[in-house]
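Final report, closing paragraph on structural work. Over the funding period we assembled a curated collection of sequence-structure pairs, and we close with a single example.
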Amino acid sequence: MSISIFWRLLAMRKNSFLCARDILIPKTVLIFFGIPILLLNNSAYSIENFKTLQTNTLVDQSGIIHLFGELKNISNESQYSVTAFANLHDKNGQNIGNGSGIAMVRSLNVGQVSPLEILFLNKDPSKQFFDYSLNYTSKAGHQKADNIVITSSKSRPDIFGYYYVSGRILNMGNQTATNVLAIASFFDTNGKIIGLSSAIAEPTNITSHSPASFTIVMDDKLQSSKIKNYSLIADSDQYVSK
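Its predicted structure, as stored:
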């Protein structure tokens, strides 16, 4: 059995452009209309559960399109397995490619924000790319306590063009935090997201009231020199940072 879902999309174009390797890409803000429809396996087309705070598209030196974004859970319950789907369009509105990506934070609490990245591995659309549309799927989850805290961080570029962020995470909860992940979003001087990276904490499982360390590497040399700021999130099976 298959279920077809159609969303009406209204695109509002701004007179601003994003540049990557001399390729100009128009920035598009999308407004979505529609009612969430349940699919099989308890998954839902859940555009109304999320608000897209910002998006940014870059074309790397290999001609691959990267779509970065930040989405916020605006529903009244936690959402997990959040997946973003993007369709690329040319200037005539024709679909020329598609891709998907999973929100970096594995389970989004009510009101929480997660970064995401979608890669379009087919290089051909980059020559015709003019616009894009987004939608999301997710499943209802359980609210996580914000019992893991990033207590310190520092950053530095190296002579090879890589950018490092290292720091410490503290588990303030009463149970062990398992599969702890540190997530970094990188921003340029205009506050646009230009990269994402993550690293597993050391140790991966942090016992109650114990610390761990992490080192995140931003290995996109084209963008690392443009980094002005970054933000961090710590995530685990049991807890998440604020």
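The first strand starts at residue 8 and ends at 20. The chain is about 0% helix and 55% strand. We thank the funder for supporting this effort.
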